[in-house]
Amino acid sequence: MATETLTLGKALNTGLRRALENDPKVVIMGEDVGKLGGVFRITDGLQKDFGDQRVIDTPLAESGIIGTAVGLAIRGFRPVCEIQFDGFVYPAYDQIVSQVAKMHYRSQGKVRIPMVIRIPYGGGIGAVEHHSESPEAYFAHTAGLKVVTCANPQDAYVMIQQAIASDDPIVFMEPKRRYWEKGPVELDAPLAEAYPLHSSRVARPGTDATVLAYGPMVRTALDAATAAAEDGRELEVIDLRTLSPLDLSAAYESVRRTGRCVVVHEAPGNLGLGSEIAARVTEECFYSLESPVLRVTGFDIPYPAARVEEEYLPDLDRVLDAVDRTFGW
């Protein structure tokens, strides 16, 4: 089986290429996705190889991109929309929530919207205002949408293909600061045998405490687990991967063994995914918990200027501090 070392960004590019090759109904559309290859070069080379009728440079109008994609999806195409940066998605929010999420339900199942909305999200790249946000809770809260996020090149390669093949509208969150991180990718593994799209996974086994994370924070959690091991603590790290529907089966199993749980995400804590996850873990694992479920999140402020974003982002020390507090009860 062919395995290559790819960056997460290149794995996405390769996955998109496979999807275009395998289904002539797949089209990619967005701002600068064609000739430029996207601001992060995720679609680099695709317009050259597949033409401008399948990799389409759109006007700077997110609402127009999503609205056009809805029409294409109704007509049997599988559009993949790129939102250039997370903070640019809000002009399309009405289309996504009012149409994309509801069309299948309103038509009593007669109309499907098989489209993917790719959103690079999160900080850590020193970007300017509106270029580093974490809007996943908006979409995870919206009935009718599915929301997933990759954390490593292998998942990026497989999950983007699975999302495109799905008949449901999927918001695909890409951790932009992890685009350049490398990892092994099995290129020839049959998609039908791949790990399920809407399933969480143990990223590192452990026995002393459970750390739940997704997207850009999985690497932070793994680094914290490596540091904790030097002090004799084995942290189990679980990559949630799917935010709607949430799959917490691996989390429940882990917490029943460890008795301690820390939830980590970059988005603000108030009404973030961590609140829902903490509530569900408490309900399901109450008698196994040795301490309250703790959260490590971004702060409840507008995303700060690039000069101080490192003060905002959850880091290894904040995760380890939360783990320490779970042992203080």
Extract low-pLDDT stretches: none
Q: How many runs of DSSP E, i.e. beta strands?
A: 14
Global morphology: globular
- Indicate the proportion of strand residues: 15-25%
Bin the helical content: 25-40%
Beginning-to-end CA distance, first to last residue? 48 Å
Biggest β-sheet description: 7 strands, mixed
What's the overall average pLDDT, rounded? 96
Question: What is the radius of gyration?
Answer: 20 Å
**Strand order within the widest sheet?**
3-2-4-5-7-6-12
- The helix-strand sequence is EHEHEHEHHEHEHEEEEHEEHEHEHH
**Secondary structure tally, helices:** 12
**Helix- and strand-based class?**
alpha/beta
How is this structure best described in words?
This protein is an alpha/beta fold and 329 residues long. The chain has twelve helices and 14 strands. It has helices at residues 8-22, 46-50, 62-74, 93-100, 103-106, 136-140, 153-165, 217-229, 249-258, 273-285, 309-312, 316-326, and strands at residues 3-7, 26-30, 55-57, 78-82, 116-121, 146-149, 170-175, 182-186, 201-204, 209-213, 235-239, 242-244, 261-268, 294-298. It has a seven-stranded mixed beta sheet with strand order 3-2-4-5-7-6-12, with helices on both faces. Strand 6, helix 7 and strand 7 (170-175) form a beta-alpha-beta unit. The longest helix is centred in the N-terminal third of the chain and has 15 residues, at 8-22. The protein is globular, with a radius of gyration of 20 Å. The chain starts with a strand and ends with a helix.
